[in-house]
Design a protein that fits this description.
It is a single chain. With 296 residues, the chain is mainly β. The chain has a single domain, classed as Neuraminidase (6 Propeller). 1% of the residues lie in helices and 48% in strands. The chain has a 5-stranded antiparallel beta sheet, with no helix packed on it. A hairpin with a 5-residue loop joins strand 13 and strand 14. The longest helix is centred in the middle third of the chain and has 4 residues. The radius of gyration is 17 Å and the shape is globular. It starts with a strand and ends in a 9-residue tail after the last strand.
């Protein structure tokens, strides 16, 4: 069977006909937050309802951390340290190289964060994260709790100053920078139990801050959750039917078809051309003729 749907002929050059979509592991409840550790040859990702971070390598699956405080999204900073979003503690943390955990952010203007979801690190070392309410709306991916803040996108500077930089989205979720750092993409998945519009927005980065926000693309199958960029600025997004590849001008180029609803993605592997895919109960991967950016 073909794992790919070509819409723009250029997409046919991005995929390899003899590179299969592989299911690497299964049996989870809801997985998100993949992050590649090239120096360790492994992938970490979150099995959120089971309150653990899982490690995958070519030998198989092991538990990296349990309990994980219902961790969701992860990234690595410029020193190679793990940065994590935790639903259960409503905070963003960094795991130091000696294993100690440092709190990066857990409140804003005296109020508790909601449930940090996705996180990235900018070229200047600032940590950006989204804070929708999904982890406090039920007891499935965290603990049902009172919401104290609206759902914002935050930036934490290298010296620890936290600032709400996008405040007009319903529930910002996945986020990623363009290869040159001049654009910021943010997926808005809408509030839980609502009919809010769901789309990907793009912002121009001016003096280190996002401006001129506008709709970049709307996923037609489900919605965008996790997003990542390749070296040419194409955006790869999760969707209900797989992974969608979107050109820098916003048009859909093609799809990787996955038999489960995809949550998040990340590039990895020795050549940064292996796309890891977290999808409902399973972890998948596929080798592409593209290289990801911002891959440790």
């Amino acid at each position: 069977m073909s794992f790919f749907e070509v819409i723009d002929p250029v997409f046919a050059t991005y995929v390899l006909g003899n590179a299969p979509l592989k299911r690497l592991a299964t049996g989870f409840d809801w997985v998100e937050g993949p992050v590649w550790f090239g120096d360790a040859g492994c992938l970490l990702f979150s099995d959120i309802p089971n309150n653990r971070i899982v490690r995958w390598n070519e030998e198989g699956i092991t538990t990296y951390r349990q309990p994980s405080n219902f961790a969701n999204g992860h990234t690595r900073d410029q020193q190679g340290r793990l940065v994590s979003c935790e639903h259960g503690t409503r905070r963003v943390t960094r795991t130091e190289l000696d294993g100690k955990v440092t709190v990066i952010a857990d409140s804003y203007q005296g109020k508790r964060l909601n449930s940090p979801n996705d996180v990235i690190v900018a070229a200047d070392g600032a940590i950006w994260f989204t804070d929708p309410h999904y982890g406090i709306m039920t007891d499935y991916e965290g603990t049902k709790s009172e919401q104290e803040l609206d759902c914002y996108v935050y930036r934490v500077s290298a010296d620890g100053n936290i600032e709400a930089v996008i405040t007009d989205m319903k529930a910002p979720n996945g986020l990623a920078f363009s290869p040159d750092g001049k654009r910021l993409y943010v997926a808005d998945t809408g509030r839980m139990f609502s009919s809010d519009p769901q789309h990907i927005r793009v912002f121009d980065m001016v003096d280190g801050l996002p401006v001129n926000g506008r709709i970049f693309h709307t996923i037609t199958a489900g919605c965008a959750d996790g997003i990542r960029l390749d070296s040419d600025g194409n955006l790869w997004s999760s969707a209900a039917d797989g992974v969608h590849c979107i050109a820098p001008d916003g048009h859909l180029m093609g799809k990787i078809l996955v038999p489960e609803t995809v949550s998040n993605i990340c590039f990895g592997g020795h050549a940064k051309n292996r796309l890891f895919i977290t999808a409902t109960t399973s972890l998948y991967s596929v080798i592409l003729n593209r290289r990801g950016v911002q891959v440790p």
